[in-house]
Amino acid sequence: MVSPAVEIKSPAEWSSLLDATNIVVAQFYSPSNAASLEAIHVLEHHSQDLEGHGTVLKVAKVNVDELKAIKSAYSITTLPTTMLFQNGKEIDKVAGDNPRRLAQLVEKLKRAVDSAKTEQASGSSSSWKGAALPRGYVDVTDQVELNRSELLNVDTETGGVRVLFSSEKPSALSGGKGTAKDWVESDTDEQLLLFMPFQSMLKLHTLQITSLPPTDDDDDEAPMRPKTIKLFVNKPHNLGFDEAEDLQATQDIELSESDWNKEGTASIPLRYVRFQNINSLVLFVVNGDGDSEKVRIDRLRLIGESGAARDMGKLEKIGDLPGE
């Protein structure tokens, strides 16, 4: 039996749905638009096979002719528009009848439902946050293409790219449980180079870095937190260390002890005008805050807005970004 979509009757009902439900996928439609009505049936069909429908997932439809305030709040200009929300925050949006993008949204929906069901079964949350999100922005870390990301000068006895973007609480904050090292350390010196291509064009507002080195003052080899960082946008591949040293960065960052909160996380505001419409980010850790020869990073989170999706495996060539 096809799972019916919930018809939203008021802005208050919409807000209550977002607050009470882990995952909401919503179709914004008009009864006079045939494509909108067909899209609702397609969405209902996809949702029926998802285990967890009704517990962690709700499918909703919003009549934009009657609920103009909601239409305006989400800048709905094309019908149908499909939006995916998790924990009340927008994580994907497809404007129009775009089969490729809708297929991507459905796959993202399936992963979100699976993750939520796992959380329910374990009684724990996998969406650990090292710091609060800036108001009006969302976590877009899931837009990083992990299989095409590259990390240079990493100690292979520690974790790799995937642990950096894990949503699980770092083991250093959980009593060190587990045998796997769920963090990254540099290898031959204190520098690290990380290349992150994205699944869609992003607008980045904040970079959050969590670093939890051990606090044993007697250990001269203990890794350090990053101190000097350079960021580069829209690179088709990773940089070399010499190139990164010489190249002018999109933004230079200098961290001090006061920038780290009790969770070991630094929230770094980005020069927003320079981080519009970007398809990749290179993070270069130049040095650490101390005398060790190693730098440690436990988690990375990207905060901002996601935009139009691009073809997977292809980086568009973008011209120079304007200055501030």
Descriptive tags:
single chain; Thioredoxin-like_sf; Glutaredoxin; alpha+beta; eight-stranded antiparallel β-sheet; Jelly Rolls; 2 domains; elongated
How are the secondary structure elements laid out?
Blueprint: E1 6-7, H1 11-20, E2 23-29, H2 34-47, E3 57-63, H3 68-73, E4 81-86, E5 89-95, H4 99-122, E6 138-139, E7 150-152, H5 161-164, E8 184-185, E9 192-210, E10 226-233, H6 241-246, E11 251-254, E12 265-269, E13 278-288, E14 296-297, E15 299-309
Parallel strand pairs: 1-3, 2-3
Antiparallel strand pairs: 2-4, 4-5, 6-15, 7-9, 8-14, 9-12, 9-13, 9-15, 10-11, 10-13
Can you describe this structure?
It is elongated, with a radius of gyration of 21 Å. It has helices at residues 11-20, 34-47, 68-73, 99-122, 161-164, 241-246; strands at 6-7, 23-29, 57-63, 81-86, 89-95, 138-139, 150-152, 184-185, 192-210, 226-233, 251-254, 265-269, 278-288, 296-297, 299-309. The longest helix is centred in the middle third of the chain and has 24 residues, at 99-122. The chain folds into 2 domains: 6-122, Glutaredoxin; 138-309, Sandwich (Jelly Rolls). The termini are far apart. The chain contains 6 helices and 15 strands. 20% of the residues lie in helices and 30% in strands. Strands 6, 7, 9, 10, 11, 12, 13 and 15 form an 8-stranded antiparallel sheet that branches. Strands 1-3-2-4-5 form a 5-stranded mixed sheet. The chain has 324 residues and is of the alpha+beta class.
